[in-house]
User: Fold this.
Amino acid sequence: MRGNLNDGIVSVIIEEGSKKPIALNQKSFFGKLEGDILELSLIEACYLMEKGRLNIFENDKKCEFNYILDLIKEKDSYGNYIVYRDLKDRGYIIRTGFKYGAEFRLYDRGSQPGQGHSEYLVKIFFENDNIPAMNFASYVRVSHGVNKNFLMAIVDDDLDITYYDVEWTRP
Assistant:
C-alpha cells in the first residue's frame, strides 16, 4: 500500500476496489477517513511501515524507515512512537488523548471506538522527568473525571517501558 507524506500527515488514496485502506480504518482503527483518503499520523504510518504494510513516499520518492523515524524524533515524539508500538503490539486500539491532556486513549481488545468508551488515558514520561505533584494530581483527576484509568508509561534510558496504573482514591 502507498502513502504520501505531506506536512506530517500520510495520506493513502482509496482507489476503486481497494479494500486495504478501508480495512485499516474500520477493522484495525488506524487513521481517519476523509472522503476517498485515509489520513494517518506519522506515528501510525511509521508503525505500519515497520510492519511492512505501508510504503511512504514524499514528492514521489520512496522514504526509508529511518527517515520517517528521524522525522518523529525531530518532533520530539520518539517516546510516543515506542509506547504506541508496544501497546499496538499488545493488541490495544489506540486513539489520540489530546482532548484529555494525555498522549493516547486506549481501548481494550474486542472493544472499539464509537461503540464504547476507552478504558485508559496514557501519559508518557521519561525516567528522568520531573513531574510536579500538582500536574500529576491533575492527570489522575482528569482521568477519574471522565471514567478512565490513568496509565503512566515510563520510558527509561534503554527505551524499556514500565506501565503504572494509577487510581484516584479519596481518603
About this structure: The radius of gyration is 17 Å. The helical segments are 20-26, 42-50, 65-74, 78-89, 133-145. The CA atoms of residues 100 and 142 lie 7 Å apart. The chain has a mean pLDDT of 89.
